[in-house]
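Protocol step 4 of 5: obtain the predicted structure for the target chain.
Materials: sequence only (see below). No template structures provided, no constraints applied. The aim of this step is simply to have a reference model before the mutagenesis design in step 5. Sequence pasted as it appears in the construct record:
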Amino acid sequence: MEIIKQSYPIYDLTLGYVDKGNEGVEGLGGNLDIRPPYQREFVYAPKKQQAVIDSVINGFPLGIIYWVDNSINDSEHYEVLDGQQRIISICKYVTGDFSIPLGEDNSPHYFHNLTKDEKDLINNYELDVYICKGTEREKLEWFERINVQGEPLTNQELRNASYIGPWLSDAKTYFSKNGAPVDSFSEYLTGSRNRQDYLETAIEWKSTDDYGKSDITRYMAEHQNDDDARELWLYFFRVMNWVQQLFPNYRREMKGVEWGLLYNDYKDLLNELDPAELEVQVKTLMMDDEVKAKKGIYSYLFDSDEKHLNLRTFTSAQKRKAYEEQSGICNNLECPHRHEGENGEPKHWEINEMEADHITPWSKGGKTDLDNLQLLCRDCNRRKSSI
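Step 4 output (structure tokens):
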């Protein structure tokens, strides 16, 4: 692999700058793929874009930029490996997409508002570029090595770099592009569409096996050369349709629930479950002060596992009060250690050897208050929990 360092003035980079939307972004007179297929969408916020231009105007370094040499014979052609956000910020400013605050009054100035000297200052600013020429594998390995500067790629963006093909291009139209169909269900998803989080979620759900293990990389490898990603989209659409049928009343706690995993396990129960009854249960649990993890309610409704709810626990002060009232004795009258103390008396435990227990379980209406608190030795509490 050969690596060459060169400098390019901004004027050269912005020649022929064009944003083709889904087809990518070009510059350097058409010889530079600023946003090649495996790169992320533009994600810099306005303040970051302005900061890039401010650095240029003040002559501050923007950091090293990395390109890959894809030239064939005498046909010069490069693609940006790292530095896309900085280059696009510069090109967008020079072509009039945004302004920056300048002067004592911080008034907005577009590139065309600048004086000739100010324009020349920007146009003549040189970016330091390292250009790599090597095999496809060397390029991707180098890409992973230098992905520590600027805006680090997400795991899914890195996967996209390795599985370029018709399937990925089509999947992005469903899950990644501006105005993609997935936007209709964004209120159920966490993360960012532009950063490939929605795509990652869909693949993770679809690739999860009967043992609960997902393999996103394997799924992408198997489908890389498929003509389209319709199968993945239809699966995702069915998941969302299933959710909306069972829970027609949307609540903000529904955002980020692992709906696909619930669908995989319980999709066949659609005709057996009553949305009206589910709504009553959801409402009841939402109003229950004992339930701390409201998002977990939806998983609990299917498997009845209380761990999803993160139920309220007794405080240290409550535990101390109960300990003093019980004189350090396990409250289970059938405790096997009941007569292990001196002279056959009940064994006395240290407070850290005892565990707080609900006398009446939460599932039967018990509350987390002193009237419903007892301390048990660990053996008795674990034995009770396993019943």
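Step 4 remarks: The radius of gyration is 30 Å. Residues 26 and 33 are 5 Å apart (CA to CA).
Proceed to step 5.
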